[in-house]
Amino acid sequence: MKKSVLSPCALCDADDARRWYENCEPGLGSEFVRALEECLSRIEASPEMHRVVLAPYRKVLMRRFPFQVIYEIREDSLWILAVYHAKRDSALLRKRMTGP
Asked: InterPro entries from the xrefs (predicted)?
């Protein structure tokens, strides 16, 4: 089974969200991290199950939190490009997927 590898941008996304939720309510940031880990486990278990949004990237929605995880299936890993709030401007996400 291929393992998830978070890109530097995805790590920043996840950490920003964790800190925001933790500031809203103590312990909620940890719950966000657990929900993200569960989402990554679902991706690892069935990487091709999720919808292609812009080849080669796929999208899966997190449970409980309004975030989507954008990833690419690579030969040796699952490259996590973004942990992105579902209500954020999708043009910024598309730019990240297509490059500068």
From this structure: RelE/ParE_toxin, RelE/ParE_toxin_dom_sf
pLDDT tens-digit profile, the chain (100 residues): 899 999 999 999 999 999 999 999 999 999 999 999 999 999 999 999 999 999 999 999 999 999 999 999 999 999 999 999 999 878 777 888 787 6
Specify the CATH number for 3-94; select among 3.40.50.720, 3.30.870.10, 3.10.450.50, 3.30.2310.20: 3.30.2310.20
For the purposes of burial, counting CB atoms within 10 Å of the CB of 8, is it exposed (0-12), middle (13-18) or buried (19 or more)? Answer: exposed
